[in-house]
Amino acid sequence: MGSPVLAGYAAGPRRQAVAATAARGLRWFAQTRGIPASAEFLLDYDVIEAFCVAGLPGRASSTRGTYRSALYRLARPVHGAPGQRATPFAGAKAPPPYSPAERAGLAAMAAAQRDPAKRASALAMVVFGIGAGLRPGELVALHGSDVTRHGRRVAVHVSGPAARVVPVASPYAGRAARLAARAGTGHVFRPGPADRGYKNFVTSFALALAADPAGPRLTAGRCRSSFICDHLAAGTPLRKLLMITGICQAESLARYARHVDGAPAKAVLRAWDRRQQAG
Predict the structure, then answer these.
(1) Dihedral sign from CA coordinates of 277, 83, 251, 142
(2) Pick from 12, 54, 69, 202: most CB atoms within 10 A?
(3) Which of 93-97, 225-229, 237-241 is the least confident region?
(4) Sheet containing 153-158: order of strands
(5) Distance CA 74, CA 68 (A)
(6) Mean per-residue pLDDT for 220-247?
(7) Are 8 and 105 contained in the same domain?
(8) In the structure, what pLDDT confidence band is assigned to residue 105 with cuts at 50, 70 and 90?
(9) Which domain does 60 fall in, by range?
């Protein structure tokens, strides 16, 4: 949808990408209902609401909420503040983080894989998931050269729509550096020819690992949740936490905060977002 709706929209690359995707969906929704294509009509709050409630079949509530927030930011300069409360969407619950004992068990499980390539990839899921919070697609795209080391500090340079630099948590930094050095310029996770665009590429790999049936299952979702919850528990400032996780809005952290005693409440996170938008 181009120029009239997104013109002058100033935000980071991640927010711009989300806004562009939401705007394309809104334009398609409006076209099917005969709504004029000008920003005045497309960005009417009632049109946005109808799109987010009825125009996104099969999408998670969290996605609907993210799109609506992006479109509301676009609509505000055109129509001012919304005049009524938006339809509440139930946020998708984040998986619980791994406990210290579970993390140790996952690392041992990864090290126990007989095939060296499978062993390294299993460990990469643990190290770059719990230690750096990478999403599945980001892990799949990771090259050894994307990981840098300066003394004890190891960082992951994530590419894509949520491009960022993530400091690896200290318990995982050494292993992250060794895995990256071994991969060189190749892929860290499942190197060699592979269908990396396959949606369940990481999940299918994890399900095929030899593991104790009574132990915790290795999943990218719980690994990322562990990374985010660790930072919430440590009191990492919200601006920094959003930056290193690639999350657009602080309110999205509420999904994880429910697992962390003393983490900011959803109302606090929402208020922080409003202050940023107002600024």
Answers:
(1) negative
(2) 202
(3) 93-97
(4) 147-150, 153-158, 164-167
(5) 10
(6) 96
(7) no
(8) very high
(9) 3-79
Q: Say which DSSP state 164 is in.
A: E
Q: What is the mean pLDDT of the chain?
A: 89
Question: Measuring CA to CA, which residue among 189, 227, 248 is closest to residue 98?
Answer: 227
- Same domain for 111 and 230? yes
Summarize pLDDT for 145-171 with one digit per residue, the tens.
Answer: 999 999 999 999 999 888 999 999 999
pLDDT at 1 over 50: no
State the total domains in the chain.
Answer: 2
Do the Cβ atoms of 41 and 35 come closer than 8 Å? yes
- 3-class state of residue 96 by DSSP: coil
> Which residues, at least 6 apart from 197, have a Cβ–Cβ distance to it below 8 Å?
none
Identify the weakest region by mean pLDDT among 56-60, 126-130, 260-264.
56-60
Are 232 and 265 in contact by the 8 Å Cβ rule? The answer is no
Taken in order 212, 215, 221, 225, is the CA torsion positive or negative?
negative
Among 129, 127, 126, 150, which residue's Cα sits nearest to residue 138?
129
Which distant-in-sequence residues (6+ apart) come within 8 Å of 178 by Cβ?
none
Distance between CA atoms of 42 and 178, rounded to whole angstroms? 51
Between 105 and 16, whose confidence is greater? 105
Indicate whether 95 belongs to any domain: no
The span from the CA of 183 to the CA of 175, in Å, is: 12
Residue for token pair 């409630």:
53
- Regarding whether 208 and 178 lie in a shared domain, the answer is yes
SS3 content of the chain, % helix, strand, coil (to 5): 55, 5, 40
List phi, psi (to 5°) of 169.
-55, 140
CA-angle at 227, arms to 223 and 233, nearest 5°: 135
